[in-house]
Amino acid sequence: MQLQFLGGAEEVGRSAILVNDSLLLDYGMLTGNPPQFPVGSVDPDAVVVSHGHLDHVGTVPALLSGDDWPAVHWTPPTYELALTLARDTLKLHGGTYDCPFTETHIRRMTQQSEPHAYGETFEAADHEVTFYNAGHIPGSAHVLVDDGETRLLYTADFHTDDQRLVAGTTDRPDADVVICESTYSDVEHDDRATVEERFVESVRTTIWEGGTVVVPAFAIGRTQEILMVLDAHDIDCYVDGMGTRVLKMLRNYPDYVRDAAALKRAKSNARIVSGRDGQRRRIARQNSVIVTTSGMLSGGPAMTYIPEIRQDPTNKICLTGYQVEGTPGRELVERGRCELNGGVVPVAARAEMYDFSAHADKHGLRAFLTDYEDAPVFVNHGDRCAAFADELRADGYDASAPAVGAVVDV
Ligand SMILES: [Zn+2]
């Protein structure tokens, strides 16, 4: 089996791996200014997508040009999320180099879509492929690929612990070779219940003090998780941004969430903001909790809420995930100021960070890999892939961290 790492190697973003020159696993986008796409030019017979995050699926529509379009295999929620993301990219960047596809390509995605449930083996580019629940977001999958000689397990993004939205991964299919993500290979997450408790306590305190809490959250997975946390603790809230569309969409996929009834309750508990800035400013002045995109304050309705609440120290901004270096969210946490609509402004409202991660931490990754001690392990999707591969090698694994562009035979 031959593997070509076209992106997402020694980095996070633009994940793409070409198997035997015919089967493509993921085709993502690295967001940034400008965004980056997988290297090389590919013409796969089929594409298999692990899950509906931009860094895994963002560039898939661009594969559907010319006359010969590959089939695109994914779970039903991943297909829906891919459509949502593609339309959003087109809306934000259509007609520029930052968006390598058009509305026509997005329509072809629907024509070429072949959805599969977890555990169902299907054929793609002469390989047998099976999805297993990866416990990361609804519809996320580990991808097992069998070319008749070698079984490859591509873990993609996964979590070993339960979240409210999805249960942690438990499937460990037999494999001869593993490609493993490593996002949090040097982090130990605090216990989720403890993080929730601290978050809820902080939100409640601010509400009691008469303040407003803005909770920036990623649209896919995180927004819904936070709404479930707030509902479980009887805290009323507003929800705004692309996460509301995902929330509505997930109603149609009860089998892909951990507790469909709890998600439904969370949806009823949250008041959906329909999107006018006048309404947003009124809500921001209320004594309220607002869950909104974007998760790192780089856009979305948060850009309307933060200016409204920033000057009052009674107010609070509760960030709910890792803030990438160089993003306004990181600037806010580290320096108490924020780039808003073109200018840097001081923020008197208190900023706090809560680690609601959807990835396995150091212990989760190691526990997962104990089932694959005899398989070569290729570490990808992280800021310290080589260091994690070194740690694995020190413990007897045959581990390495290929660079973008690397070709390996296994
Ligand atoms: Zn992901």
UniProtKB/TrEMBL annotation:
It comes from the Archaea. One of its GO terms (molecular function) is RNA endonuclease activity. InterPro entries: Beta_Casp, MBL, Metallo-B-lactamas, RibonucZ/Hydroxyglut_hydro, RMMBL. It holds the Pfam family Lactamase_B. This is mRNA 3'-end processing factor. The keyword Hydrolase applies. Residues 13-218 form the Metallo-beta-lactamase domain. Keywords: Hydrolase. Residues 223-332 form the Beta-Casp domain. SMART domains: Beta-Casp, Lactamase_B. The keyword Hydrolase applies.
